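Let's do one together. I've listed all components of the complex below, 506 residues spread over two lines.
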Amino acid sequence: MRIIDAHTHPVFMHDGATPAAARRLVAHGRAHGIVKMVALGDVLVHGRLPSAAQCRRINDETAQLKRWHPDYFIGFCCLNPTLGARAVEREVERCVTQHGFRGIKLEISNNARDACMGAVMAAARRWNLIVLQHTWSQTNIHQRRFHSDPADTAWLARRHPDVSVIMAHLTGCGYRGVLEAKGLPNLFVDTSGAFPEAEILDFAVQEFGAERILYGSDLPIRETSVTVGRVLGARLTAQQRRLILHGNAAKLFRL
Amino acid sequence: MFIDANAALGPWPFAPLTERTAPQLVAHLKTHGVNRALVSHLGAVFLPEPMPANRALFAAIRRTPALLPVPVINPALATWREHLSTCCAAAPIRAVKIIPAYHNYSLRHPALTPFVAAVNAAGLRLIVTTRLEDERHRYHALGIKGIPIAQVAAFLARFPATHFVCSGLYKPEIETLAATHQNFSADIAFAEWLNTLALLTQKIPARRLLLGTNSPLFDTHAQVDKLRLCRLPAKTLALIGSANATRLFGL
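Okay, and this is what the predicted structure of the assembly comes out as:
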């Protein structure tokens, strides 16, 4: 079983930033069949509104992981879009040209519908990057001013059909989120986040097919055996399982 | 083979989950290496009084010895003594469960004093359910939250001579409570972090942890793999997987 984990935080609240910790994580991943991890950075270590310097430090840590294990980690560039177009463009260019990052990670600095996202999507288009937007149903959380609901991330993907967008956290998006993601060929959903609530993955596959679902763990917040186990436990065909665990990510990340 | 300390039959109104009969649940658990399970009925969560669901539970699993009935009692109801004795007479039970958050009382309720005494006198283990689902994902019109950890701690302190099984605690909650209270064990259904059990067993002895899947609300395969693939010594795995349940519930 070969797995690509599309959603990890190898460094989390400063933990994991040493060569030994990175080695342990790679060994842990390989033991579970994970052949590559998308490293999204220590995205909340400076709060929800990191400065430009703090974003650089987060991304430099991701770049360091890539240097230690170049065949294992795929880097995504952590951004705070509210810093403005120039800051966004400068950091994306630096991460792509110096570190070979393949995508952009957006957390909860702003809502996906905000005007500041224009510069982010332009940078993604210019550098052919994938945009991974943290998403969670705001029905019970009530933070929509800066926290993206599935409807917001779907809106972003609809508005930018030439950019591939990953709506993170299938379970956090919930059944309503699955329905929001229907009919948008550039919108992918990752399976990361939350407890392994039963049968929501089955529902997502039934509603929009297995081809736009990516395995993601959200480690270290989640346990790898559980996040893989929920895919293995879903009522899927072997082909659907292979697509979710590996094939879709390999195609999207051009591996 | 494992024992699941936290499984259920019956419908859950807020998600399109497969509703299994008792034989189907046994077969489902067996495919994941679970050969016995302590089972309650989800109907008891929402009915005005839990006895119709308890009766449905007893009837459903009468011929499936792999499933051990855990009736739900609401001690805030005037008739809890009658309910408890009816359950004891209906089937050979080893434990009863309370679900305070869903039954609109707190763990400070005065009736819990005679209730715990009665449960002890009946030779039963009391399972305290602190949550059934991630509060962020609950049905929008349902304002029920998990029981605050301070309330659980006060409850444990109030009955120091009784050993409880807590169900639904998050990993940090188990760790916090374990630092000050020895009179509880916990199922691991809601405990999760990278290397969950390796970390948890540094804070609480393995002899106080139990496999719990929270099936059908959570994916059984994923929950069992949390234990099966945890790379702890076989003895630890055996404790959490079955030996603790055997000891705590007198199986």
